[in-house]
Design goal:
Length: about 775
């Protein structure tokens, strides 16, 4: 606490130093930047002045900007990736409202925008280390499984982000587990981002406007996860005209409709997608297939209304469900629901406010029927979230962010309800309640033409609440005491200061170095015997036994843009120190266990690595190459004699190569290649027999490796027709061209021909998978 007070005092002392009086009067230019064709606001667009290098500002997530500069005449430049630069000559003698509409296409004003403020080089100084924005246009061309464009699958081709493997939508960021990624859709948390056990993600690319990925240097307004933030924004809808787009593929089809509301003061978008393999299983001759179902659907909805020049409201929602059943003996359905109500308010040309009410829910149900026993297992997590953010544009060099948020978590670890004829008893695990709150303050300071600093602090609190029984355990995991707490009673509170710092220094117009430090705390924990996201995850908040997980990360990077060749290069080193990490005792049972916390072990960890990335952004041939060399280790008393051992998600090498070639106006070809070291696993080191049945015993935790993963995908897109009112195209792709047998699962069992021998069986989900999709837009 003493260090926290010293840090706050430092903030109070240093901020006035940035507020020095200027020799001239200053005036503010503010407004909103939009797409000229659709009216969509453009987040992270850049506003700068040719005469004031280093004094630019980026729009916030809602397209709003504000910048104060001395009285005078200026050339104002507005840039956004994939759009023509807007150039406006202004004379500032008073505050000015300047709303800007940008047209898509390449800039025709190259002689004006080349320099430190050009859109081609803005990543050199503006973005903190470990931060990337994904171009939705790139997603459209990357070959994917069964032709379904996928935001989450595409980001796994970036450095430092590693796929959890085929059949899993989970991913690992800089050595963190799959549950350590905060995935937001219009500010709502999405707990399980997968369809069909991970074959696809829940995000329909037709409904997505922007995605920001934070691997480090996280702004203070984000919190709750250790490794990363994926902030995904839905499209607002076209407020100029009605339109529709969609696609028809081999496994799923999708349709999106949008248009104006209230004479252009508002807009809406509805985007839906459904798979239809279940429509054909009834015609199968095989009885197992005939009586099986497997399908998913998702719906994105959003509407907004401009009340007046200073007030705008948004209402958005997502609803998705997966249903699977096999011969009426096993059934599984799970899904996410989110809702966000937002109010944007402009208090003045310098103060912007966003107020949000957010709902998030994830549920799963498993049904098992073997004639005698019929059992339904259920679990869920529900969040009610309030968030208030303010942005204050203090002057030309300082942008202050501050706010607060609070989330009420309700987790249902599990229930199991058996039929009357079943030999099993019903199980009802107690619900868990927690209130997670935070306040934050940050400053983006353009210290000079070459130096940009972002610093701040987040103060988070997790209060464990009743009602419920809370247990204590001895070192061997045996229950020693229990206490019952009434509803709303605080059982335990954890307050964690989370300082954040990032700095970028421009060495020359084409290169820079960046440094960041951030601390993150995580209070919602995934309990799962594997590192992967599965439908049977058990989520628990921090408790009297489970402390918040904490990560301190330092990152250092070098960045360079080869402007004439259209190349962008970066190289980063990072190191994470991990506290209060969780693993399990040998033989731990995580399902239906009311004393699950007694089976948990706690310790520390570390993750470190090197990432390099080179991207070609212009010309007929574009793409990128990324390489990550990393190590992730845990040190937990009670496991491997207390020595460091590899975490399950530890992958030493990861390589991604992506290329896209615009051969003609009609044909675009693409390919991607992926290679990574196999995950760390624990395999049997021997076996013995009990009553004639083999029993395996295991050695050191995670001392073995799955085989390395590698895959090549290719694709081609044919633009069939394009007019002012209609566009259609065909997408052809082959996933895993050379049919690599990548492991999904490896099991050991007795050889049926010789019980003294052991068979090793590998399951592979996908070999070569061709697909074709017809896309349209009008």
């Amino acid at each position: 606490m003493k260090k926290l007070k010293q840090f706050i005092l430092f903030l109070i002392m240093i901020v006035p130093g940035f507020l020095q009086a200027q020799s001239k009067k200053t005036f503010t230019v503010s407004g909103t930047i939009k797409d000229k064709t659709t009216g969509e606001t453009l987040p992270a667009a850049t506003v700068s002045f040719l005469e004031l290098p280093g004094k630019g500002v980026s729009t916030n997530n809602y397209g709003f900007y504000s910048i104060a500069v001395p009285e005078g005449s200026y050339t104002m430049l507005t840039t956004y990736t994939g759009y023509r630069t807007d150039t406006l000559r202004i004379r500032l003698t008073k505050n000015m409202l300047n709303n800007i509409s940008l047209s898509s296409g390449q800039s025709q004003l190259k002689e004006v925008v080349i320099g430190a403020n050009s859109s081609k080089s803005k990543n050199i100084l503006t973005l903190p280390p470990g931060v990337q924005r994904l171009n939705i246009k790139d997603i459209n061309n990357v070959p994917v499984l069964l032709g379904e464009r996928d935001v989450l699958k595409t980001i796994q081709l970036l450095p430092g982000i590693v796929s959890a493997g085929d059949g899993n939508a989970g991913f690992f960021v800089r050595g963190g587990g799959a549950d350590q990624n905060l995935i937001l859709l219009d500010e709502a948390t999405v707990y399980n981002p997968s369809h069909v056990l991970g074959f696809f993600s829940v995000f329909n690319s037709d409904a997505i406007k922007d995605i920001s990925i934070y691997k480090g240097g996280m702004p203070a307004n984000y919190g709750g996860r250790l490794s990363s933030v994926e902030d995904i924004q839905m499209n607002d809808g076209n407020n100029q005209k009605f339109g529709a787009s969609g696609g028809i593929g081999l496994i799923a089809s999708r349709l999106t409709v949008d248009g104006p509301l209230f004479d252009g003061k508002g807009s809406f978008i509805v985007s839906a997608r459904r798979s239809y393999a279940d429509l054909f299983t009834g015609f199968a001759s095989d009885t197992t297939t005939k009586h099986s179902k497997i399908y998913f659907y998702d719906i994105n909805l959003k509407g907004n209304y401009q009340i007046d020049a200073n007030n705008r409201i948004f209402l958005s929602g997502y609803f998705g469900k997966d249903v699977m059943s096999f011969r009426n003996s096993f059934g599984l359905d799970y899904g996410n629901s989110t809702g966000t109500l937002r109010w944007n308010h402009i208090f003045s040309s310098k103060l912007f406010s966003n107020t949000s009410l957010i709902y998030s829910n994830y549920t799963y149900d498993v049904n098992i029927d073997d004639n005698t026993d019929n059992i339904k297992v259920s679990s869920a997590i529900t969040d009610y979230h309030f968030k208030q953010d303010f942005t204050y544009y203090l002057n030309a060099t300082n942008k202050i962010g501050f706010g607060l948020e609070s989330t009420y978590h309700i987790t249902q670890p599990g229930t199991a309800i058996a039929s009357a004829s079943s030999s099993y008893n019903d199980v009802f695990l107690e619900k868990k309640y927690a209130l997670e709150s935070a306040v934050y303050l940050s400053d983006e300071w353009n210290a000079s033409d070459k130096l940009k600093i972002t610093y701040g602090i987040r103060l988070s609190d997790l209060s464990v609440l009743g009602p419920g029984n809370f247990y204590t355990y001895d070192k061997d995991g045996n229950k020693t005491d229990s206490t019952y707490y009434q509803s709303g009673k605080i059982v335990k509170s954890y307050i964690t200061p989370e300082p954040r710092f990032a700095a970028s220094y421009q060495l020359n117009p084409n290169s820079s170095v960046k440094l960041s430090y951030d601390r993150n705390a995580q209070n919602i924990h995934l309990l799962n015997n594997s590192a992967y996201l599965s439908t049977t995850n058990v989520y628990l908040p921090s408790s009297n036994n489970i402390k918040p997980e904490i990560a301190d990360q330092v990152a250092l990077g070098y960045y360079h843009t080869f402007q004439q060749a259209g190349f962008e290069f970066s190289s980063e080193l990072y190191y994470k120190k991990l506290q209060n990490q969780i693993d399990y005792r040998n033989g731990a049972d995580l399902v239906g266990n009311e004393n699950i916390e007694g089976d948990l072990l706690y310790g520390s960890g570390r993750a470190y690595g090197w990432e390099t990335y080179i991207k070609k952004k212009t010309g007929k041939f574009t793409g990128w190459l990324s390489y990550t060399l990393s190590k992730t280790e845990l040190k937990i008393p009670g496991i491997n004699n207390g020595d460091y051992y590899p975490a399950t998600q530890d992958q030493t090498n990861h390589i991604s190569l992506v290329g896209m070639y615009q051969a003609t106006k009609k044909w675009t070809f693409s390919a991607d290649f992926v290679y990574n070291t196999g995950d760390a696993v624990t395999w049997p080191s021997g076996k013995f027999s009990v009553d004639g049945a083999p029993v395996y015993y295991y050695g050191s935790r995670n001392s073995n490796r799955l085989p390395a993963y590698n895959r090549l995908d290719i694709g081609a897109t044919l633009l069939a027709k394009k007019t002012a009112k209609y566009e259609s195209s065909w997408n052809f792709s082959i996933y895993n061209v050379y049919g690599q047998s990548n492991p999904y699962n490896i099991v050991f069992q007795a050889d049926p021909k010789n019980a003294n021998k052991t068979q090793v069986l590998q399951t592979t989900l996908f070999k070569m998978v061709p697909s074709v999709t017809y896309n349209f837009k009008f």
